[in-house]
Design goal:
By secondary structure, the protein is an alpha+beta fold. The strands form eight sheets. Strands 21, 22, 26, 27, 28, 29, 32, 33, 34 and 35 form a ten-stranded mixed β-sheet that branches. Strands 2, 4, 5, 6, 8, 9 and 10 form a seven-stranded mixed β-sheet that branches. A hairpin with a 4-residue loop joins strand 37 (806-809) and strand 38 (814-817). The relative contact order is 0.08. Its EC number is 3.2.1.40.
Length: 913
């Protein structure tokens, strides 16, 4: 019996040892931040992975990557395309393929083995990527479409019916693999034998088609398993055919819908075939989609449905031969950012009869459309009108849509139950008015469909303050609603443009919520391609609206978002690719607008949409008032000079750094001379102006305290504890106050419920974020109820300052964890799934005790600031931190003990000062 106890004890000891020091593993393999992507047209794509390990302080010391041309070779550990060998490096987030030249339309397979200070992993589960079409010649065929109007089009109204194209093909051999490449402009849906290919909607991504065109790639092997097949494509208008053509000097129009497609087939006998678009395809405009456009909606006549049009044997005798049409002009590029898709379905919360119609309330402002079930006589018209809010009498409030009709019409074919949703439009709405519906309108016959770019939600935040939590929720809905392959300003009115000025702080905060790196990388490319030869950058990109107003704050977002992506993802290519264009723009602005006194004289918008002092002062008025401000433009240029000086070092252009820094130093002197002489601190400078001077480091060191006092004075005394910032100032306000040591004042602003505040929006029924602080009373042309620009840096503050999750270097490889303790806030729990892995910060404060749970991903380190009386007042899982060999004590600062942690999970308990 005694020996059995010994053996059992030995087994338990061995089990615990294995558990404590489990072998690390590599997973979450991604190519260009995508999982097993199709259509990567980069010759040296970025490879990344995450390390999973139970032990603490796990650091990668080396990696070994194998890239092979087949799964069989990879299984034999043969990297015939690239064998990196054991490479000494801690890099796990941006290793660039460095093997043989890749060929178009080939699939490659890869895996990785990591070596750490706690042992080596096994080979990872294999991953793959398909190489796209790398060269223009790879397309080798023509664009097809119809370049002109048909009887089915309404030329006067600017409405085009959808274009349908089809082709029957024969497959005489067994298919090993088949890949479809398609560019369908403005929007497309691809079918094979009546089955839609993919789950994307509103594809492809928006671009300025004279600059670049995105193609999508699909594996269609399983759909080509017989002899006869039919290929079908429906083309919608999107932004290609612009509905509003009355202002060609402002709005770009690219022409009539068109497409180019090819399916590349490899047969089991090794032979290959390419099926492509040519004039043997046939097309019609006489289908059920009578009109479709982004702003006005879709009209669908089910009586005109082309039954089985994308199946073999359909009689297309009345269809016309497709025409060869001119190509768009832009370069062909694989779309690396994901397409949009239906990401969530919402059930209505109520239906209310109103004047012979019905008002459906979905309980949430969002963007997308409604899917409807209906049964009734043929020819019955059901009209769906969309709105964000209601008038006092319960009817739809639609004045803020401007010229957008935001209306869908479905005409029944009659007979059985019909189910319908639009294809080539979307709306921003909470409420839908239903008119003409036959029978009883019931909740289960309508579904709201939330549509945005397919991306993972990677952040969560909750706290003891319910208002903070609800603002976070509203922000999520607003951000998601405005991801439409570009970061649009709003989803409801006839605008929906990617204004650069809306996003400098917001994009940063959004990155804590969404895996949006590819999305914003694509947008930076839109900005770069919109640059004029002389260096000018527009206010809107892609430049669907021709706005080149030469201001600092809007185009300056180009640099700020690039800096954010580099900080959050560690991809230096972002800076390398855009550095020449950024430098060109900076030189352009300086040459044109820096006067003899060193001031940047040109600004267009000022602190856009700053709140009126009172609701009454802003009632019925438009905030659409430009107040150019040379202080703002000069402050921004100084800030951007410092930023591009860093970029020059990162990108191998260090010879430029001295010039940028000298220019910045001179501008700081000129700025203070003009705007901040000793009496200027108590002059008429606005809150925004003072925030910029403080956050950008423009005031002299000896004057910072005085300026900080002035900022506090404006908020507490002149604003009665409220902000007075517009779009510009709100991008920096929360971080500035916190850096000043006044996180308490930032918290007050974040939790106000009276005007102007985020809480005021919620108190007045907002379920997203308004465009204006007084969005409930302003003129309808400027009161979008689903905008993100006034989020500013609020979400950055949530995650970095309240939760204490901040990247210090190289995409969270070094982390700073320094939560602010504020009276009235008792606990915060936040997670952020960074490129390195999940980071968790969960803290609670009760009287003089502070409990903090932390999780840090493998291959990272964190500097952690624990509020405590001192080192001896902190324990980790019941043990003094000084007794932990895996916790490095750095020092003490302002009531906090600073420690350095490696990866792992930690539970701290401290006594507060």
């Amino acid at each position: 019996m005694k020996s059995k106890v010994k053996i059992t004890g030995l087994i338990v000891w061995l089990f615990l040892s294995v558990t404590a020091f489990a072998q690390p593993s590599a997973d979450a393999l991604r190519c260009e931040l995508l999982t097993n992507p199709l259509g990567i047209d980069k010759m040296n794509p970025r490879l990344s992975w995450q390390i999973q390990a139970d032990a603490r302080n796990v650091v990668q010391t080396a990696y070994h990557i194998l890239v092979a041309s087949s799964p069989e070779k990879l299984a034999q550990n043969i990297g015939d395309l690239w064998d990196s060998g054991k490479t000494e490096s801690d890099n796990s987030i941006a290793v660039f393929y460095d093997g043989k030249a890749l060929k178009s339309d080939t699939e490659v397979f890869w895996k990785v083995k990591v070596y750490t200070n706690k042992g080596a992993s096994d080979w990872s589960v294999p991953a793959s990527w398909r190489v796209g079409l790398l060269y223009y010649k790879d397309w080798n065929r023509r664009w097809i479409g119809f370049d002109g109007y048909f009887d089915s089009d309404d030329k006067e109204a600017g409405y085009l019916s959808a274009r349908y194209f089809r082709k029957e093909i024969s497959i005489t051999k067994e298919v090993q693999e088949a890949t479809a490449y398609i560019m369908g402009l403005g929007l497309y849906e691809l079918y094979i034998d009546g089955h839609k290919v993919g789950d994307q909607v509103l594809a492809p991504g928006l671009t300025d088609y004279t600059k670049n065109v995105k193609y999508n790639v699909f594996d269609v092997t399983e759909l080509l398993n017989g002899e006869k097949h039919t290929l079908g494509v429906i083309l919608g208008n999107g932004r290609y055919y612009a509905i509003r053509q009355e202002k060609p000097y402002k709005v770009k129009n690219f022409g009539f819908p068109k497409m180019q497609m090819q399916i590349r087939i490899t047969y089991t006998d090794g032979s290959r075939q390419t099926i492509h678009t040519d004039d043997t395809w046939k097309g019609t405009t006489d289908g059920p989609i009578i009109s479709n456009n982004e702003y006005d909606g879709e009209i669908y006549d089910a009586r005109k449905e082309l039954k089985d049009w994308a199946k073999v044997g359909y009689d297309d005798a009345t269809w016309e031969r497709a025409e060869y049409v001119q190509e768009p002009g832009g370069n062909y590029e694989a779309q690396i950012n994901n397409n949009m898709k239906v990401m969530q379905d919402l059930k209505p919360v109520s239906i209310t009869p109103k004047e012979g119609k019905y008002i459906i309330d979905f309980g949430q402002n969002f963007s997308g459309w409604v899917k409807m079930r209906v049964q009734g006589p043929g020819g019955t018209e059901v009209t769906l009108r969309f709105a964000e809010s209601l008038n006092e009498d319960g009817t739809l409030f639609r004045d803020n849509l401007r010229a957008a009709k935001a209306t869908d019409v479905y005409i029944l074919k009659g007979g059985d139950i019909e189910e319908w949703e639009p294809r080539f439009t979307y709306h921003g709405f909470r409420y839908v008015e239903v008119e003409g519906y036959p029978g009883e309108v019931e909740l289960d016959k309508f579904i709201g469909r939330l549509v945005y770019d397919e991306m993972e939600t990677v952040g969560s935040f909750t706290s003891s303050n319910a208002l903070l939590n609800q603002i976070h929720k509203n922000a999520w809905w607003g951000i998601a609603s405005n991801y439409k392959s570009i970061p649009v300003d709003c989803p409801q009115r006839n605008e929906r443009q990617a204004w650069l000025g809306d996003r400098p702080g917001s994009a940063y905060g959004e990155n804590f919520l969404f895996d949006n790196a590819n999305f914003y990388s694509k947008w930076l490319e839109d900005i770069r391609l919109s640059q004029k030869e002389d260096g000018a950058i527009p206010d809107v990109a892609p430049a669907f609206w021709r706005y080149y107003s030469d201001n600092m704050t809007w185009p300056g977002t180009y640099l700020i978002v690039a800096d954010m992506l580099y900080q959050q993802t560690g991809d230096v290519r972002i800076l390398e690719k855009h550095y020449p264009a950024m430098k060109k723009w900076m030189r352009y602005m300086e040459a044109l607008y820096r006067d003899s006194e060193g001031i940047i004289t040109k600004d267009s918008y000022g602190d856009w949409c700053a709140p009126p002092a009172t609701i009454e002062e802003g009632r019925g008025k438009s905030a659409d008032v430009k107040r150019p401000n040379p202080l703002i433009s000069t402050a921004y240029y100084y800030h951007l000079l410092q930023m591009i000086a860093r970029f020059s070092e990162h990108t191998g252009n260090s010879q430029d750094r001295a010039g940028f820094e000298e220019s910045a130093a001179n501008m700081k002197k000129d700025f203070n001379k003009r705007f901040y002489n000793p009496s200027g601190y108590y002059g008429n400078n606005t809150l925004t102006e003072n925030l910029l001077a403080m956050y950008f480091g423009l005031v002299e060191e000896g004057q910072k305290e005085k300026l900080a006092d002035r900022i506090v004075e404006i908020i507490e005394k002149e604003n009665n504890g409220h902000l007075s910032t517009g779009l510009v100032g709100t991008q920096w306000i929360m971080r500035t106050l916190t850096d000043m040591g006044r996180a308490d004042l930032a918290y007050k602003l974040a939790t106000n419920t009276t005007y102007p505040s985020w809480g005021y929006m919620l108190e007045n029924g907002a379920t997203t974020i308004w465009e204006l602080w007084n969005g409930d009373t302003a003129h309808p042309r400027m009161n979008s109820q689903n905008h993100v620009m006034m989020l500013g840096d609020l979400l950055v503050w949530y995650y970095e300052n309240l939760a204490g999750i901040k990247s210090a270097a190289n995409g969270f490889q070094r982390i700073i964890m320094k939560p602010e303790l504020i009276n009235g806030l008792d606990d915060v729990e936040a997670n952020h799934k960074s490129i390195q892995g999940m980071i968790t910060s969960s803290w609670k404060r009760k009287r003089d005790r502070f409990a903090w749970q932390i999780a840090i991903p493998a291959n990272t380190t964190a500097h952690v600031y624990i509020p405590a009386k001192g080192v001896r007042f902190i324990t980790e899982q019941g043990k003094q931190i000084a007794d932990h060999s895996d916790i490095k004590i750095i020092g003490e600062e302002n009531g906090r003990v600073i420690i350095e942690l490696g990866s792992g999970k930690y539970q701290f308990l401290s006594t507060l000062p």
